[in-house]
Amino acid sequence: MQFTIPSTLLLLATSVFAAPHPKSASGDLQDSVNGVVSTTGFENHWIALFHDNHTLDGFFQNMHSKNCSQYTMTHTYNNTAFKGVAGHFPPDHISMMSVMSELKSLERSSEVKLSDVQTNAPWGLQRVSQGSAIANAPQDGVRIAAIDFKYQFEGKVAGLGKDVDIYVIDTGINTKHVDFDGRASFLFAFDGVEADEEGHGTHCAGTIGSTTFGIAKNANIHAVKVLGTSSGSTADIISGIDKMLVNHEKRKGQSNFAGSVASMSLGSPVRSSSLEEAVSQASAQGIHFSVAAGNENQDACNSSPASATKISPIVAVGATTIDDDRASFSNFGKCTTIFAPGQDITSTWTDGANKINTISGTSMACPHVTGLLAYLLSLNPDLKLDPKGLKAKLLQTSIPLKTDKGTVPFANNGFGSTNSTQHLKLRSYRRA
Prior knowledge:
Elements: E1 2-4, E2 8-9, E3 16-18, H1 23-27, E4 29-36, E5 45-50, H2 56-65, E6 72-78, E7 83-88, H3 91-97, E8 103-108, E9 115-121, H4 123-127, H5 141-145, E10 149-154, E11 165-170, E12 184-189, H6 200-209, E13 220-225, E14 231-233, H7 234-251, E15 260-264, H8 273-284, E16 287-292, E17 315-320, E18 338-341, E19 345-348, E20 355-360, H9 362-379, H10 387-397, E21 399-403, E22 406-410, E23 423-430
Parallel strand pairs: 11-13, 11-15, 12-13, 15-16, 16-17, 17-18
Antiparallel strand pairs: 1-14, 2-20, 3-20, 4-9, 4-23, 5-7, 5-8, 6-7, 9-10, 19-20, 21-22
């Protein structure tokens, strides 16, 4: 059976551009304490602020009078603007405190984490990190292909996908591209040639984890070459999965292992039971899968490996445009787990150390979700061997998107998701 790579080249006046040096990505980052407000781990830690003219001594005397002594104080606030305390209080103490007249507010503590903003990102990264469509989205190809959008994310660049192994099962990767910072390497090449003669795998890897164009900017990227310049066989693809499984088994026992994510921007418009079985069994061993839904504008359940969503927790990805429409070529239906940007996507390319290109397809949507899975693993290390749990987390952070095929989940990293934890922006500043 022949397998094809579901993408189409966008022919622009100049289809290959010079990429900025990857260091420019970190140079264009803005720090902001865009806190993810989470009460996890703070169930018994509370903050109490007092009304004016009330004092710390008065509060402690009142607590003593109510026989409330089983608490641990962690903070006291005693300035000219406000006064209050924070500490660990058992539920019965909180019940008593909730009716104290001197308290102006009483709330559970929450965690606020640092986040960054990349200001030279492709449009797909901006779209998966905000809750609504891109305002005043450009309509001409050159402006869409530009990298002047913004990508916001939780934490720092160094933590994005750190120690997560990404397996790009594709045409290979141009590992010498400067935007990979030396993090890309070959694990397997079906033809013995460790190069990407086509560019497709390099483009996908760039969206997953390159410094400028990628979501998980510090992940380990492994090339699993199973396709030639346009197609390949089911047997070669399964051989690549086999080599990935061997490496996964070796890695998962190591202390710096944070999870394995397989990215398959390939597919056949007909079913392959052997491929679906291989993918499902690999998933059962703890490997997270993101696969392209396909470019036939049909029900994704008719194609492989997307149809394996019916028997395993893999994620099949459909494609959208910069206007939040379903891409006209994208497959759909119940076997399509989620949608992501997939038309006019700019990323790394082959034939040189700094080339980029703009192409379209569910092949381009798939790596957005692959990167998100690695990003989520960084934030949820307990899910590193739990594909079902990570898929649920991905859908939890998704946002609803109305399309011509009904309302579907759209990939989001938690910034803008009504299903995920609320974000609280406190301040921002330019990094020196």
